[in-house]
Amino acid sequence: MPVLNDEVPDEGDYDASRRRGEFDDITPDDFIRGSGHDNPPGWLDSSDIDRARRQLPIVYVEIVPVRTDELGRISKVGTLLRAGDDSAIERTLITGRVLFHESLREAVARNIAKDLGDIALPILPVSLQPFTVAEFFPTPGVSEFYDPRQHAVALCYVVPIAGDCKPQDETLDVEWVSPAEVLRPDYLAQMPGGHDRIIRRALAWAE
Amino acid sequence: MPVLNDEVPDEGDYDASRRRGEFDDITPDDFIRGSGHDNPPGWLDSSDIDRARRQLPIVYVEIVPVRTDELGRISKVGTLLRAGDDSAIERTLITGRVLFHESLREAVARNIAKDLGDIALPILPVSLQPFTVAEFFPTPGVSEFYDPRQHAVALCYVVPIAGDCKPQDETLDVEWVSPAEVLRPDYLAQMPGGHDRIIRRALAWAE
Amino acid sequence: MPVLNDEVPDEGDYDASRRRGEFDDITPDDFIRGSGHDNPPGWLDSSDIDRARRQLPIVYVEIVPVRTDELGRISKVGTLLRAGDDSAIERTLITGRVLFHESLREAVARNIAKDLGDIALPILPVSLQPFTVAEFFPTPGVSEFYDPRQHAVALCYVVPIAGDCKPQDETLDVEWVSPAEVLRPDYLAQMPGGHDRIIRRALAWAE
Amino acid sequence: MPVLNDEVPDEGDYDASRRRGEFDDITPDDFIRGSGHDNPPGWLDSSDIDRARRQLPIVYVEIVPVRTDELGRISKVGTLLRAGDDSAIERTLITGRVLFHESLREAVARNIAKDLGDIALPILPVSLQPFTVAEFFPTPGVSEFYDPRQHAVALCYVVPIAGDCKPQDETLDVEWVSPAEVLRPDYLAQMPGGHDRIIRRALAWAE
């Protein structure tokens, strides 16, 4: 059961011929423009990413999408419904690996576009100081965050979404509920692996 | 020479008959709606505010208005040109006292509307964690921040401005320059009392 | 029932003859040295503080005292047991008003010394960026924080305590419990007025 | 010329026979205890780390060591003098890669011990919220931070040092100067690759 969103389901789409030499003249904007149907530069094929996941921590961004009112207060929190590996529906946040030579801002924008579509109009934070850093370990119990596939260090941001959401890829739907509802134990219980804790921390930080 | 914006120039407009009893049924929105020509509830007449300023620290918000690009990066920083007490033009940020029974978010919104007008469309921060807290003392040299009138504790926020600015009140103009320009020593030198340091810290925090 | 610690119980000790003119040559260290049996400069008599409390927000610091292990993780959280106005025992955090011409750091140090004694050896934060700002209003329901006496803006800090605690003044005892215990609903329920929320936020921020 | 500290100089010490299977029963403390002469678990041999550096961003911690006074204010900032690859002396901060299955706190403690010795008595932060995140790219000009070897994402912390420093490994000396001195242009100019910017941001955040 995947806990952080993975590129593995897309690996068949990966065009290895595009990768070599492509970094020579790459610009940061390539990562944004590359966020459509093709995989962006920096993508790894499954054997490379599998090896890396056994060897060193992987950088992730994790985004709590929110709707805000005119005073900046969170009115709704968005969670994603996805089909997991075992066909069960799971509830999660927007997460994704930061690619080679991709900036954190580009990774945040790309992963939001991947899950919510191109007209979500996310308002990216002015500062990259994350509200929390979540450390996922492949060993249950080592930390509050568990990811069976890898050791991941996830920089977590709250991002207001000003536009319309068109769920894409594996995302079946985006559900918006009030902060009070999202904190209900039965709701949080649907987000395993520690994502419930990230939402708690996000709301504690946002007040 | 005023260093933090002051309500003193408006004191003649203050209608004391409005104050008593008005807090009984006040709602937070009153502070926003009250931000036009009349002074909002919580305003003090000049003898009351003068006494308070000799007795205890005063809560302020200080806002660095910015323009951001689609990745959240600061493209422009806004500074205000104002006519000071001695008719000299001075450059400053958006600052204002938090009124009795007014929330910080309301104070941020009200002070932006007061200086930039009603269609500035500020994007208030999701969290009230300030990027810095500036302590202004009436004694030069005690801290990096000096305000001859008072001891003020200013919570500082960077606020993206999405709309149009119509300078109002004592604000003669809003000038937008790039982060590199605003950090030029001759530019920072135009902002006395420590506001230059607040801009430096804002840009250090925003990266 | 007091919610934020108050100087009212001490007002009889206040020596008004010390105040006038004393600010002329004051230094920041006076506030620290002044933290013993006498009230420090900046203290207000009860009629002055009562008037101020009806007129403008009051600046507070609120401290969550903790014990940490060698990796900086919180092992224990401290709460204070105090005798309230109606002789009932109440559980609270370290809170106190910031005095005129007193810096936030001095206020944090003074209030810790007042409640925990002079050999508590607090490790003050390197940055004054608070983990949260709590806005207490005298009207129930306006915010998550309620203080019947006043509108207070409290900058909140987590401060590791490295030394021994000798409870002082109205503080009857300091109780140290693990983060898991302090988050138990029955424990948090003993801290009314929103202090339970400040502890929750402190632990969400500290991870 | 290395910009972030590297494990390459130590690669000959690496005992590959220790790695396989060792993660099965590993505990977080192993990383701390493993910080002496032998490389800790999670260390990679040079071909593995070289491959990873061409494929994905590497997680780093970067530490600004400081001396603080009793109010938590920075009195001195520490910088390291090291012998670079070309025998030139270079000035840097404490930096190091986060190893597989190592927590950020362990990485901070291990890297401080590696450079400053075992009796430095660092006071690790209560929260892992970094004051800044520095993104180093192998392409000059892409960001303010440049590392010819890799794309690194460095979480940056200010850590007070309470004990004695015994420079170790490649570290020749630790130099402590005041915040005013460290910000002098000629001093900052000795720290290439963006470490000067990290110090600027640290001091802007710490005030």
From TrEMBL, chains A, B, C, D:
Gene3D superfamilies: Nucleoside Triphosphate Pyrophosphohydrolase. Pfam families: DUF4916 (PF16262). InterPro entries: DUF4916, NUDIX_hydrolase-like_dom_sf. Residues 1-47 are annotated as: Disordered. This is DUF4916 domain-containing protein. It comes from Bifidobacterium primatium. The lineage of its organism: Bacteria, Bacillati, Actinomycetota, Actinomycetes, Bifidobacteriales.
